[in-house]
Amino acid sequence: MWRDAALVAGKDLRIELRSKVALNQVVPFAVVVVILFGLAIGQAAPPAGAASGGALANATVLRAAGAGLFWVAVLLSTVLAVQRSFAVESADGARDGLRLSGLDPAGIFLGKAGATAAELAALEVVLGLAAALVYGIHPAGLAMLAGAGALATVGLAAVGTLYGALSSGTRVRETLLPLLFFPVAAPVLLAATKAFDAAIAGTPAAGTTWLEVLAVFALAYVALGAVAFGPLLEDA
Amino acid sequence: MATALSFRDAVALAGGFPLLAGLTLEVGEGEIVHVRGPNGAGKTSLLRACAGLLPLSSGSAVVLGHDLRVEREGVRRQVGMLGHAGALYDDLSVEENVRFAVRASRGKEGQVAGALGRLGLDGRLARTRVGKLSAGQRRRTALAVLVARRPRLWLLDEPHAGLDELGRLALDGLIVELAAAEATVLLVSHELERAERLADRVVTLAGGRVVAEASGQRAPQPIAPARWSAAEAVGVGSDVA
Predict the structure, then answer these.
(1) pTM value?
(2) Contact A92/B83, CB-based, under 8 Å?
């Protein structure tokens, strides 16, 4: 299984390095989303009673909402990354090739999720720098950020790959995937935002519970995906 | 002759529509069977069912000694299918596509070079991305993947499509060589005369079942083994699109 996972992940990452879809499309998309959030909130009407300090108040709101906005941008980008991951299998009937390849379906799932996670991790580094710059965030708890980021990334990649397989065989895959994915990924958005908030506030201990939530989510969806991916690959 | 595949009253449905409607067919090991019939007769469905890609609703199917309904994975490891699409990755090179298939099937690294050489895809072509190849070269790459995997049952759906005449001759030679090596070949082709010359038997499908069987005209000696490397040498089919 692990050997098959490494083979599939290597193949997917090689395809991404060649096609540069993530680099040329997903990363710019995510950065634009972060900037648009900044413009929307930064230019919003100041809260009531803050007539003289409106801009300052908006900057405070932006900093407070920064972690959530960052993870919303990651969530949106995950949909694009997962759609791309399955688009390469849909083109030229490669999906049938995978089914006949002799690869363990659990290995295929882990490989595709692993490659997506690697792409998301790289994206999050770029996006984190952009968010820090645009939102004026200066995080203190780097260990908490790294831990929560890693667990949330694994969880998003696993659930995205699972629902990507489910939707990829349908004619409405482009709209079906977000519809399935966003509600299920909501706990990751919540937990990762809370853990990041704790890290940004310099109180990483306050994020430990959310870290545990992320770990359970990631573990559950990696296990579920490894079991369910085979039947999904056949039926979708 | 041992039996390679045996279908009995096989029924396969898609949205309630019968793709196979009580199909019964037996094919021996090392046999080349040309499957023909009008559009929608069930030719491609038969190939997909043989590969375990199309589940049966009823009836029985034993392929290479495995009951398809319970041992699908056992069948798939020994089956190679060339469909209308080549199941290739455009952003990988010819060699990388073949290597991925070999590693996935736990083959040996030497099988990669052997298959590339056999299909005349070695050298510069091996390093070319599949997305930049002509239709004929893509077809050869898909065939190279199958050659490298060394399946016992070959399911070929219009394999001559996109190939130039020298390429077609070379493919004919490959098919005859496969059968000589005891591989079984199901050949779906609208090139009736060519396929009939290659086949031991001709099976006609209509409405998802076998409606006629006849002997083919397979020559007792292999067809001259034209090679793609020979085609490349005379400058045919060597252009990168």
Answers:
(1) 0.85
(2) no
